[in-house]
Amino acid sequence: MVTVNRAIKTGNGIHAIRRPQLSGNQPLKPKYSPRRSIILLLVFSCSLILLVVQNQMQLSAFLNRPVSKVRIENQWQQISDDEVQTLLSGFMGNGFFDFDVDRVREELELHPWVLQASVKRIWPDTLSLKLTEQVAIAQWGDAQLLNQYGETFQPPNIAGLQTLPKLSGPENYQREVMEQYQKLSQILFPSGLRLSGLSLSKRGSWELMLNDEMQVVAGRRNVSEKTQRFAEFYRSLPVSESSRFRSIDLRYGNGIAVKSVEANLTGVAIR
Description:
The chain is an alpha/beta fold. It has helices spanning 34-54, 56-63, 81-88, 101-109, 174-188, 223-236, 239-242; strands at 7-9, 15-17, 69-72, 114-122, 126-133, 138-140, 144-146, 152-153, 166-168, 195-200, 206-210, 214-219, 245-249, 255-260, 266-270. The strands form three sheets. Strands 8-7-6-9-10-11-12-13-14-15 form a ten-stranded mixed sheet, covered by helices on one side. Helix 5 packs parallel to helix 6 (223-236). The longest helix has 21 residues, at 34-54.
């Protein structure tokens, strides 16, 4: 409730006027007008739209700047910067919102050493690039490589990867050969034997190459058990004797046929 102004005459002739007050000692508030607020909002919106329309080209050029920078998120071993630059050259310079990141990712993943590519735009003009390379675990045949998932890929030149183990087998058996290689490698390692080659024939027979010079025929069945038996036999011999082994046949039920480098005679060690 608002009090009314009243003039009060004092004894010395001075007039005092009381100020209007709200009940509860609260200051006066202006009356809220929804209509006025709507009008102000409309005026502001129209002004903003007019400003955008008048400067549409400048605003578009500012927001959609050409992509001109590449930020490398990780390091590569097999992929060169020049190769990546060549792959990106046809896309750089496109506007930020026009830049086709999906197409760039597809082009990068066509590279034989690229397992996965991550491509992102960073406003206003930068491309973020992360490449996951293939990890070559073994050679497959004469020209292909196997990754850690048992998948083949074919770089143009594998001359510098000749130290990788050489695996081979029928088509679509890459994963099975890779799994067998990992299993047999663990069996042979404690005996100081390195599985440098493994092949699976079309008839399902396994052959091993140990330390790049020792050929082992394991047959089709119980390959792990036979390999374990040979590893224990090999470890029990002195190095001067076992180092002469060149050909081993594990297809016997209770023995091992061994051919040494000095003689072509075959001996059978019975267990």
